[in-house]
């Protein structure tokens, strides 16, 4: 790369947008060229647009404080200033689909944190260590869009990234049935405790749309390219319950799984220890050195202690044991706004850059 790629952050004032900005500060591949948000924030300095709603426990980078926020609907102007954009807007799904496609058609690649395009057959839904090969569908997508360099890539729902990597390391044993219960932090809804005091001393056994995503999105991640679309895998069959718990960051999953070829516990632990993907092979800046970390202690992983492992980009696993109904059960933990959201998007963008999907404008 002769120069750093110029990046736009759409939805820059929101929780994920704020996290993206901190991850892009002094990034070796990328530099922030544009911050964009709704018309309400447009024209203000970023610091003024955010106001007192900076949600992270690390300070706002100095470089962005005086940047003037643009209106996300100024597609042509923003596209002229950037090489690609991250999209983390909070809008209805049909509006997100339109805005992301507008940027792609303006020859600006989109790395999306949103769910709006995850079901679009030629939009890859990427966990970089697992299905980097799905990026090949971008050529078919560009043909559909009529673009030379514009395309859309999405990251999956934050909840599935706690348990899908641990299952993926065991695919040679053909998992056929999964039951998962996720215990999800309030930051997954873009909130902190001061925004949502009702969550103190409380659990809510429902997160709108989350269970469908947890059951369906892994099948696209594990699917295959057939012609001009990604075809979902048929197995494993997944059933999920998703529960909101009074935790700031970190999604935990209780996982039950059965296999066509039941592995030994030793085989499972070995696969988890040695599992690597394309980000580790390419030594990407945000790639965790150890993707999956297993704890032998009976009371680990713990959200508060372990969510920040590998700078929040690693997955922790524990309590592996045989089950009376399924073959095995275990627990997994991921940092939902790092690995599950902004960090996963930045790692995906690093992969796209390393594989030369971003052509300089």
TrEMBL record:
SMART domains: Semialdhyde_dh. It is an enzyme of class 1 (oxidoreductase). Residues 6-138 form the Semialdehyde dehydrogenase NAD-binding domain. Its EC number is 1.2.1.11. This is Aspartate-semialdehyde dehydrogenase. Keywords: NADP, Oxidoreductase. GO terms for molecular function: aspartate-semialdehyde dehydrogenase activity; NAD binding; NADP binding; protein dimerization activity. InterPro entries: ASADH-related (IPR051823), Asp_semi-ald_DH_pep-lack (IPR005676), NAD(P)-bd_dom_sf (IPR036291), Semialdehyde_DH_NAD-bd (IPR000534), Semialdhyde_DH_dimer_dom (IPR012280). The active site is at 158 (acyl-thioester intermediate), 251 (proton acceptor). NCBIfam families: asd_EA, PRK08664.1. GO terms for biological process: methionine biosynthetic process; threonine biosynthetic process. Belongs to the aspartate-semialdehyde dehydrogenase family.
